[in-house]
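# step 3/5: fold
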Amino acid sequence: MDNKLILLNQTCLTLTGIKKAITLNETSLHLELENNSVQILGSNMEVKKLDVEAGVLEVVGTISQIKYVSAKEKLSVLKRIFK
């Protein structure tokens, strides 16, 4: 499944291709995609729509950072922690 990210005026975000929502709160969203994950940071974020079966997320609020993390990067971070 492809993923698509649309951000309007740093206040409205639509993301497709979601497999699983790991963390959802006002300041941080952590979502699992097909081959990686994405972390979205901001303030006053509110999930307007979450449909994991269709893989769609809609969020409103102030979005300050979007970071994609590959599966390889997640593993290396865990390796460093548990060395």
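# step 4/5: annotate
The first strand starts at residue 4 and ends at 8.
# step 5/5: archive (pending)
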